[in-house]
Amino acid sequence: MLLADRFGPRRTVAALLSLNFALVPVMYACVSTTQPVVVGLGICLLGITGAMNYAILAGLLAAAFPISVRYTGISLSYQLCSALIGGTAPLVGEWLLRSTGGSIVPVVIYQMALVAVSLVCSLALLKRSREA
Question: For residue range 43-55, what is the model confidence (pLDDT) as tens digits?
Answer without folding.
Answer: 999 999 989 988 8
